[in-house]
Design goal:
Blueprint: H1 2-45, H2 59-72, H3 85-114, H4 119-142, H5 147-170, H6 180-208, H7 215-239
Helix pairs in contact: 3-5, 3-6, 3-7, 4-6, 5-6
Length: 245
């Protein structure tokens, strides 16, 4: 009987030792699983930026990446981070408005805005504008503004286009018609407007080029904006009394 009891005790001790060894083997696996679960939770709480995702939670990350790129390249975002879908829609809307003004508004009102200041002012505005437009487009290849810079540019040249439109509506007697300063303002605003629009349009296309799936939309909005602007101002110039020379 004593021998049987000793064997029973030995078996119990062996079983306990086996259980302890199994537990020790399972501990690294459990720790690895815990680490994987923690990493998955962190990814869910802070997802990586996506080309088509909403800004929301990713906005601080995108802004930090953009600032890093700007600092690295000396203020020129040569490799900007991807944009959120919301920002891309805004830029497409700006590109539509830009095409509306560039190919619809400005060609229709340029003569009404500058010709009252004299033939020299009119020809100077047309010639210099044609020269600075390619320079603006080339500058956009080197100096690439960020998202906020693009939106600020749109506000700047919109104000200048509005000034040109006011001069055209007041034709044939715009402000400061008989002064050199008035002619300088008219010619200067026309030239600066063409330069900024050419630079802004090239910068927008370069910025959206990183999102290849949106390039078809870029072509569509450019043509749609140009068509709407040209048709609208063709009717306003030829079939209304808003503009007179």
């Amino acid at each position: 009987e004593e021998e049987e009891e000793e064997e029973g005790v030995r078996q119990q001790l062996q079983q306990q030792q086996l259980l302890q060894q199994q537990q020790k083997q399972k501990e690294p696996q459990q720790q690895l699983q815990l680490l994987q679960q923690q990493q998955q939770q962190q990814l869910l709480q802070h997802p990586l930026p996506d080309d088509r995702g909403l800004m929301g939670e990713n906005e601080p990350l995108l802004q930090a990446e953009e600032q890093t790129v700007l600092l690295r390249d000396g203020g020129c975002a040569s490799h900007p981070p991807p944009l959120a879908a919301q920002h891309i829609y805004w830029l497409l809307g700006v590109l539509t408005w830009l095409s509306f003004c560039q190919n619809g508004v400005l060609p229709s009102i340029s003569s009404y805005a500058t010709l009252p200041y004299g033939n020299r002012a009119y020809h100077s505005a047309q010639t210099v504008s044609l020269c600075v437009a390619p320079l603006g487009a080339l500058l956009a290849v080197r100096l690439r503004p960020g998202y906020r810079g693009l939106m600020g540019l749109s506000c700047t040249w919109t104000v200048l286009v509005s000034y040109q439109l006011v001069l055209a509506l007041l034709s044939p007697s715009p402000p400061l018609q008989d002064s050199t300063f008035g002619a300088f303002l008219a010619v200067g605003s026309s030239v600066v407007t063409c330069f900024l629009i050419a630079y802004h349009k090239a910068a927008l296309i370069v910025r959206l080029k990183a999102h290849a799936e949106w390039m078809l939309s870029v072509g569509v909005v450019i043509q749609a904006g140009s068509l709407c602007g040209a048709l609208l101002f063709f009717c306003l110039v030829n079939y209304t009394d808003m503009f007179s020379s």
